[in-house]
Automatic annotation (TrEMBL), chain B:
A Gene Ontology cellular-component term: plasma membrane
Domain named Anti-sigma K factor RskA C-terminal: residues: 97-254
Transmembrane segments: 91-111
GO biological process: regulation of translation
Protein known as: Anti-sigma factor
Coiled coil ranges: 114-155
Organism placement in taxonomy: Bacteria, Pseudomonadati, Bacteroidota, Flavobacteriia, Flavobacteriales
Organism of derivation: Salegentibacter salarius
Gene Ontology molecular function: sigma factor antagonist activity
Keywords per UniProt: Coiled coil, Membrane, Transmembrane, Transmembrane helix
Presence of the UniProt keyword Membrane in the record: yes
């Protein structure tokens, strides 16, 4: 009898260690909202690197970006119950938290001025100067993609994705009609998708 | 709604960016839940953007999870994440001790029980032996009784009552005389126990002239429970008498020690 209990316990621990075995995305978010730490770990595993990338592209300081990343995930934990899938994607929700936290950070008094002049750079500079990529990224394909990327695409992706501008703000910034922002951006992303999905 | 046109409009990319107004976003969410192909499209866009932004991270951030988890607030449960493994270890330790204790108690109980059973078995064995002896005795008694009964019932047997004489008026005895087999059974139950150093001697008497012939001694009188003695008697006895004689018996009866006397009824 005790042997049976230990066996069940063992199976349970196994399942908890690999949540994707039984948790689909929606269920995973629901578990997170219920305060399940395992679900939080899984969410962290899924989104932390991208979030870190977004934060770093705005802050451009590894140490400070790490601090902000931690704050962002603490916010994700605390605010998870307020996420509503009717309003948008969970990824988008995380993006907004990360961008807002990063922008708050570079506007704060303790953020050094000499780092602010890097603001003119965008994600392309980071990718071009980068030598080590994580295993999940096809670095050669990505560099080819960046090389072939039109300047307007670089700006569209930088504003809309990394900096979180609205469609209207982007349209004004680039002096481009609203509809054009939408269709142009799609063409830029289609190439990225072709590179990622292949 | 033309879904392909909707997809190719580029609105889904802006939706994932979060670049739409809240009203527009709600609208896309509604469409997404209705059309699986829209959902697939959104998931692919998301995957591409996840890859792109992950590539801009300066390094892997997996190692930060431990320090983040330490700072997580616990709104619903007060259980600290560290507490669970500690409690599990304690539980395992305690259950280990509990198991050993249970085993010890079990062994002790088992040992006691074995001893009790062994004693019970020995007692039962002793009782068995006693019972067997009793049964053997009872069988022997039964055999004797049957033998006696057979003697009494035999048609050739004649019963001669011997009445108490002057020395012992209360004494009484019977002779069951089988004339065919020339055997006399003496029932001496109502004779007093002989004094130490004395023995009863049985005499066959013929009357004219009075001639006593010894037919034997009632040996081991005290030890015999039935007090029935079988003696050989080939004489044409007309009477039987029992006298008390010195140990070993006498040639002639000591008449003043005649205890009982009875005559054989004429056929």
């Amino acid at each position: 009898m005790p042997l049976f209990i230990f066996f069940r316990l063992y199976i349970y621990i196994l399942l908890l260690r690999k949540p994707h075995f039984f948790m689909q995305q929606d269920a995973l978010i629901l578990e997170l909202q219920n305060g399940n730490e395992r679900a939080f770990e899984r969410i962290y595993h899924l989104y932390s690197e991208s979030t870190y990338g977004i934060i770093y592209s705005i802050i451009r300081d590894e140490k400070i970006a790490e601090e902000v990343l931690q704050d962002v995930f603490l916010k994700i934990w605390d605010k998870a119950p307020s996420y509503n899938s009717d309003k948008g994607r969970f990824f988008t929700w995380i993006l907004n938290i990360a961008r807002n936290a990063s922008i708050d950070k570079i506007r704060s008094k303790d953020f050094k001025n000499d780092q602010q002049n890097l603001k003119t750079d965008n994600f392309v500079d980071i990718l071009e100067s980068k030598t080590n990529f994580s295993e999940a990224v096809d670095s050669i394909g990505l560099k080819k993609y960046i090389d072939a990327l039109k300047p307007v695409c670089k700006k569209l992706i930088d504003y809309l994705f990394f900096k979180g501008y609205t469609q209207k703000e982007t349209s004004e910034e680039l002096d481009m009609p609203l509809g054009t922002v939408k269709t142009r951006n799609r063409i830029c992303i289609d190439k990225l998708r072709a590179m990622v999905i292949k | 709604m033309d879904i392909q046109k909707y997809i190719s409009s580029g609105i889904l990319e802006l939706y994932v960016y979060g670049a739409l107004s809240e009203k527009e976003s709600r609208e896309v969410s509604r469409v997404l839940k209705k059309y699986p192909e829209v959902k697939t499209e959104v998931e692919e866009i998301e995957k591409a953007l996840l890859t792109l932004s992950a590539a801009t991270a300066p390094n892997n951030a997996e190692h930060l999870i431990a320090s983040i988890k330490e700072k997580l607030s616990k709104p619903t449960t007060t259980t600290a994440p560290v507490a669970t493994p500690v409690r599990t270890i304690n539980w395992i330790t305690y259950s280990g001790w509990a198991a050993s204790l249970l085993l010890l108690i079990g062994l002790f109980v088992f040992f006691n029980r074995t001893n009790e059973l062994r004693e019970d078995l020995q007692a039962a064995n002793a009782r068995n032996i006693q019972m067997e002896e009793q049964i053997a005795n009872a069988r022997e008694d039964a055999e004797k009784a049957e033998e006696l009964l057979a003697v009494i019932r035999n048609r050739n047997v004649q019963r001669i009552p011997l009445k108490g004489q002057q020395v012992a008026p209360e004494a009484f005895a019977s002779v069951y005389w089988n004339t065919e087999e020339n055997t006399a059974y003496i029932d001496a139950k109502d004779l007093p126990e002989p004094p130490r150093g004395k023995v009863y001697q049985v005499w066959s008497l013929t009357m004219q002239p009075l001639t006593p012939t010894s037919i034997g001694l009632l040996a081991d009188f005290e030890a015999d429970d039935n007090k029935v003695f079988s003696l050989e008697n080939q004489n044409q006895s007309e009477a039987f008498g029992i006298t008390l004689e010195p140990e070993g018996g006498s040639e002639t009866p000591t008449m003043d020690q005649l205890y009982v006397l009875g005559t054989v009824a004429a056929p």
